[in-house]
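Handout for the seminar on molecular recognition.
Each group receives one record of this type.
Step one: identify the two inputs.
Step two: read the structure output and locate the region that could contact 7PJ.
Step three: write two sentences on what you found, then compare them with the reference statements printed after the record.
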Amino acid sequence: MKLHPLPKQTLVCGNKALDLSSPQVMGILNVTPDSFSDGGRFTDLNAALKQAESMLSEGASILDIGGESTRPDAKSVSEQEELDRVIPLVEALTHRFDTVLSIDTSTPEVFKAAAQAGAHIWNDVRALTRPNALEVAAELDLPVVLMHMRGEPATMNDLAIYDDVMREVQQELKIRVDAALAAGIRHENIILDMGFGFAKNTAQSLQLMGELWQLHALGFPLLMGISRKRVLGEILGGAAVHERINAGLAAALLAVQQGVSIVRTHDVRATVEILSFYNQLPSIES
Ligand code: 7PJ
C-alpha cells in the first residue's frame, strides 16, 4: 500500500535531471582511509571506480562520494586531504560514467572544486553551516541536501535530547531552509533529510521513522539514509554491520511509503529490488 505520493518534481542537476516522483537510489561511495583497507591513492581510486561501476549496474541513479568520516570518533580531515580524496575520483567518474554525482561534504571549497570537476549535488550533513557554505551553494545553483544534525559528530550524541523529536527536527530544518532561501538558494534546489544517526538515539530514530511523512509539511523532497547504521544494530540487539542489511531495507520501504524520494544506501541491488516491487503497486493521487 502506498501511503504518501512522491512529489511531482524533477530535480535539475546541471545537465542531468532526476524524476523524484519515483524513488531514486543513491549509492554510497566512501573514499575515507578506513573504508578502503590499504594501499595508496591509485588502489583507492581503482577500488572506488569498481564499486561505482557495480552500484550503477545494480540501478543506482546517484553516487554519493564522501571524503570525510562523520563518525563520532572520526579524526578531522584537512581541506587539502578531502580535496585529494574526492576530486580525482569525481574526475574519473565523470569521464567514465553518465550518472548524477553527489558530494558528502561540509566544506564549500571541496564542493566547489567537485562541481567544477562535474559533480551535481551538495550533500551536507551540516546543512550549509560552515562559513561561506550558503553563498557558495547559491552561486553554484545546484541541488543541496540539508540534513538535520545537532552540534558536531564528536558532540552530537550528547545533544540527543528532545521533548518531541519530530517537531524539533522539523523546526531546526526549517531554520536551515530559511537561511538557504535568504542566501538566494532556489526552492527547487532544496532536499531535506532527517539525519538518522546524527544526534538521535534509537528510540528517537524509531519515532522519526514512524512519523517521517510529517516532514512533507516543509514542502521539499526528502532523502533518507539509514543503511547499516548503528541504530539498526541496536534495534536488532547488537547486530554487526553486515547483519543490518535486511532491517535497512525494511526502513527504506517504510521511508518510500511515506513519500521519501531518495534512499541513500550501501546495498544498491537489494534496495532497487524492493523499490521496483513498490513501484508496481497501484499509484495514489497527490
Ligand atoms: C548520511 C549522510 C545521511 C545524508 C552520512 C553513514 C554516515 N548524508 N552522510 N544523510 N549519513 N544526506 O553513512 O553511516 O543519513 S555518513
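Reference statements: Residues 91 and 117 are 6 Å apart (CA to CA). The chain has a mean pLDDT of 94.
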